[in-house]
């Protein structure tokens, strides 16, 4: 299968700082960063912090050997190794050397370690000792590592480290990265002295990464008696997950029975069911890890037995990971450790779909300025998809959601097409799997065309016509029949108060021949940006322009009256 070109590679901003304490002759901490480039860019970026254990024969040597070996040897590991495996294999060999060498030195050789590998869309962590890794995500700071200490806060003893024991048993962890994440790797000389309140202050994204790292160690150095090291990593951009990766991920997930209200799935508590369809269930859930409300989408057991549909389910997640835009619903990535069942996690939106709003207002035509604003936002979201080679294929008022703050969001990528990828297999009847809703589908889709940006333009035109007039341009076809696509009623007749440029823009989207529609959504947006669309036409315009139907009705009655007068005169 061909895969579309990937988006830019992983981009990080990294700040580093280390300071020896006033009581030490030299800094026992060691830190380092290795960023792969060129042909080895796929190996990602490795960040390490080690703190030589006090009382060892040479804590600085242990810390430096550990960091240097990790940074230098990681690039020689096979690309097929998962991040945690590569880090563990290298750290285990370092542990063997330090343990053997330490037997000939008084106090041995040992160091704490926290290593973080940023690769693709995944963070892999290996830690031993009391050097820590924090994450700031969406305003919340979380500790991702565990201290290996015995005893109280004033007198504690390390129970685990590199070189301390013949058998190396570090903690390991993997999680999915998100753009905007900030990570902090620190030695105990920082977190012991400052506490989590001060750490959280320096992790504010308004402070750049280098200034944050420097500020942390300087503040810790003013009060502390230990070496202080901090590395701050900002995730600026993430590459797109590949479809083969997601397929492999979905192959291990369990297709569980559909949940009910009150049940728990992977620490998500189901609070209610939004809708049930032939393909699955969409539910509102409470994320017990971060205290946020989210939306879960589960596949139906019968639908999941169809490999074509399950493939589309994985493609839907790939689209959510690949394209981020204010007018597209946001998918929330899930870590391998947490997700054990098959479902997507999406942001929770408060508001109504445009179809719900239309029904609430009686199904009549809606105010023109409102519709223009919604069309502009929908076009921006769809254009973001098109620029990534993705066609939505099911644009309709039910899939356009208006939030309480008047942000319009395009929903549901379940029938989207990824251009450049092999299309989905035909269904058992031999027909192509196209997707879409009858009445909103472009004529070419009924002829077996797979769909392209022009078919999304047509569906957006049908949506605009329905919102403006309360009527479908070509009627309401049965689900199994192709519409007749008879000549539609001009918008100027149904909405005499509509600016001519808006009517022309909508009707151009509804052209039956794809080549007669706008070139792309960018062209449509340029039409929708015209100032006259935001107010009704002036009252002094001729009756023919303001209300063509009334003009012809008036003309008919005048003609009929004149004919009767002539007949009476002749009589």
Short characterization:
The chain has helices at 59-74, 83-102, 188-202, 209-223, 243-251, 301-304, 307-322, 354-360, 368-387, 443-446, 453-469, 491-494, 500-509, 521-528, 543-546, 548-570, and strands spanning 11-19, 29-35, 45-52, 111-119, 122-128, 132-137, 140-143, 149-151, 156-158, 171-176, 182-186, 228-237, 264-265, 268-277, 280-287, 292-299, 344-347, 351-353, 390-391, 400-403, 408-410, 417-418. By secondary structure, the protein is an alpha+beta fold. It folds into four domains: 11-237, PPM-type phosphatase domain (Phosphatase 2c, domain 1, 4-Layer Sandwich), CATH 3.60.40; 243-347, 2-Layer Sandwich (Phosphorylase Kinase, domain 1); 351-534, Transferase(Phosphotransferase), domain 1 (Orthogonal Bundle); 543-571.
